[in-house]
């Protein structure tokens, strides 16, 4: 592996012990991957701020002791607590450790964004930019919808990349690794609804694993929120880090010859897989990945009507919450608990006695049973609101 003079200086300690530690991690990963060199990144998104035990604090404390600082704009993923509404997290020990970890990363120079959807923030990256992003849905959105380039960078490689401004030139940083591996013809699905996208994402992710699907037949006017829902579900179910939508996403191929083709004509079996039968329901949780401004406004419109009978949680970023203005009051007056900085499937917000929770997120439905021991029902936003009003599961079909 070839290092530039600056990179060699970092590795040798010329820019401080903290930078040297981070460069050892990045260079070590590059050797494992067989990368010929490192590549500079324009931004980083760090997932290590989510508390997973004492090691989470030990590593960031060591970086702080060595006076490390990030050298590229760096956003932070969700943490283990809601810093705006700290009383929401029932486990006070977890909340305290989560807060300490989140504060520690801010101390390294990271922006206190605490969102799993950094692509909803201003100054998002553009086509061809090299990034060091963690968080599965952020990775797949950046690669697919924005056409930026990031591989998967988990704890603690993400913060080391932010400190050095470098990642291995390997994986999805390289053009040859970004080619589609299988075509999914979706034209037989008929009308596309809100639920089509998380269901399709879960289905395709389950089939391709870490492959790169190429989708045909997706409406040309598909929204970013729908692509977000698709990508998040595909990344959760199968580890998809890049997808192409012909006629929509910037790197989608036009020549599909030689790729295996799968026809998708029904997704009802996917909904059954992600939904436990029965009408009993304890709560609603939507906004995974974090709800966008448009999704929050749409929810407020749906809530114009009879009162809710069930607890209703909406996860979003603090940046989006700050934009909502009067819409925030509409949501809260309707009985919605707006959660920021974290997500309801990664920390202790929902009551432990609740057994069945409805969501509009394929990602939440995939992870919540294992993470917080609940059964899930997957429904559209409208079905979630209707169910909250009825006090039981209400599905359109």
Could you provide a short overview of the structure?
With about 400 residues, this protein is α/β, with parallel strands linked by helices. Helix content is about 40%, strand content about 15%. The chain is globular.
Descriptive report:
With 397 residues, the chain is of the alpha/beta class. It folds into three domains: 171 residues, 2-Layer Sandwich (Aconitase, domain 3); 93 residues, no CATH class; 116 residues, Aconitase, domain 3 (2-Layer Sandwich), CATH 3.30.499. Helices cover 38% and strands 14% of the residues. The protein contains 14 helices and 14 strands. The strands form four sheets. The protein has a five-stranded parallel β-sheet, with helices on both faces. α3 packs parallel to α4. The protein is globular. It starts with a helix and ends in a 7-residue tail after the last helix. The model has no long low-confidence stretch (mean pLDDT 97).
């Amino acid at each position: 592996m070839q290092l530039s003079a600056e990179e060699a200086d970092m590795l040798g300690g010329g820019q401080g012990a903290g930078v040297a530690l981070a460069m050892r991690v990045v260079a070590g990963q590059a050797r494992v991957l067989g990368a010929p060199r490192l590549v500079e990144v324009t931004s980083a998104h760090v997932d290590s701020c989510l508390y997973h035990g004492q090691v989470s604090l030990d590593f960031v404390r060591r970086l702080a002791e060595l006076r490390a600082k990030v050298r590229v704009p760096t956003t932070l993923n969700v943490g283990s607590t809601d810093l705006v509404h700290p009383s929401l997290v029932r486990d006070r020990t977890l909340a305290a450790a989560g807060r300490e970890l989140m504060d520690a990363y801010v101390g390294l120079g990271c922006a206190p964004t605490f969102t799993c959807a950094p692509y909803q923030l201003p100054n998002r990256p553009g086509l061809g930019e090299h990034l060091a992003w963690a968080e599965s849905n952020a990775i797949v959105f950046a690669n697919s919808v924005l056409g930026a380039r990031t591989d998967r960078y988990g704890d603690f490689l993400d913060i080391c990349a932010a400190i050095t401004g470098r990642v291995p030139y390997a994986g999805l940083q390289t053009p040859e690794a970004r080619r589609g591996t299988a075509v999914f013809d979706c034209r037989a699905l008929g009308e596309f609804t809100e639920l089509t996208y998380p269901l399709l994402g879960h289905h395709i992710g389950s089939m391709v694993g870490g492959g790169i699907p190429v989708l045909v037949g997706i409406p040309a006017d598909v929204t970013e929120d729908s692509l977000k829902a698709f990508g998040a579900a595909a990344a959760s179910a199968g580890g998809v880090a890049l997808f192409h939508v012909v006629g929509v996403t910037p790197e989608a191929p036009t020549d599909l010859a030689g790729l295996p083709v799968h026809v998708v004509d029904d997704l009802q079996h996917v909904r059954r897989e992600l939904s436990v039968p029965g009408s009993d329901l304890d709560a609603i949780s939507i906004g995974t990945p974090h709800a966008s401004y448009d999704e929050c406004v749409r929810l407020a419109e749906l809530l114009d009507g009879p009162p809710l009978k069930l607890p209703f949680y909406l996860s979003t970023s603090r940046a989006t919450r700050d934009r909502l203005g009067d819409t925030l009051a509409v949501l809260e007056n309707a009985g919605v608990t707006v959660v920021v900085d974290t997500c309801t499937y990664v920390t202790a917000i929902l009551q432990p006695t609740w057994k069945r929770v409805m969501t509009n997120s394929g990602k939440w439905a995939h992870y919540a049973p294992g993470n917080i021991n609940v059964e899930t029902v997957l429904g559209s936003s409208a079905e979630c609101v209707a169910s909250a009003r009825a006090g039981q599961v209400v599905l359109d079909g």
